Amino acid sequence: MTAATPRWTRSFPDGAYVVVEPGLALAVPGRPAPQHPGAPAVQVTSLGATAVVQAGWCWPIPEAAIRSAVGPVGAAMAVASAITGAPLVELVRHDGPGAAVIAAAAASAYPPYTAVLSATVDAATAAVVARAVAGEPGLVSVVYRAEAAGLPLDPEARSRSAALGVTIAPDRSVTATADVAEWSRHDNEQE
Fold first, then answer.
1. What is the pLDDT of residues 92-151, one digit of tens each?
2. Is residue 186 part of a domain?
3. In terms of Cα–Cα distance, which of 181, 46, 32 is closest to 107?
């Protein structure tokens, strides 16, 4: 890509949505990830009739992948987040008739949008979270909700990102979702 190359938009394998213009890559992060790769993203501590669920996540921009995709000029290119403000992060239970928020917290207002939460839950919810942590899919997810600014929308790239868990609405509201069980099946490392 040279300085004369027109803008391109791409969805990355983690669901990140990236618009590249000469000298700048504007990105919406991909799926949420464990805050510390190699360590549990969610822990459940039983207290008898209740339990404490503690969790830590981040929502990183795949800067190295973006620079690599751009080619030789990537090293000198600025990579910026399209996210404005502090995203809301929810731990969501999906085993009942509808989704139920177990706990929510505000993430940091800058990349990698780290969020940490601790919540006391009943024994039934703790059991569902423990099953998800053990690798049973579809039970519990982490959801980041945010707003993006200055982001041109490309229908094809938006569709690919949505299929990977990152939805960008026409009003630029963003929802990024990851199943907690994915991290257990992959030893808590990002795919």
1. 999 878 899 999 999 999 999 999 999 999 999 999 999 999 999 999 999 999 999 988
2. no
3. 32
Going by their DSSP bridges, the two strands 50-58 and 33-34 should be labelled as antiparallel
Q: Are 3 and 13 in contact (CB under 8 A)?
A: no
What's the chain's length in residues?
191
- Both tokens of residue 8? 């391109």
**E strand map for the chain:** 8-11, 17-21, 24-28, 33-34, 42-46, 50-58, 78-81, 83-93, 100-106, 115-122, 140-148, 166-168, 173-179
Reported as a pLDDT band with limits 50, 70 and 90, residue 26 is very high
Name the residue range of residue 137's domain.
8-181
Separate counts of helices (H) and strands (E) for the chain: 4, 13
Q: pTM of the full predicted structure?
A: 0.89
Are the beta carbons of 105 and 57 closer than 8 angstroms? no
- In the chain, the number of structural domains is 1
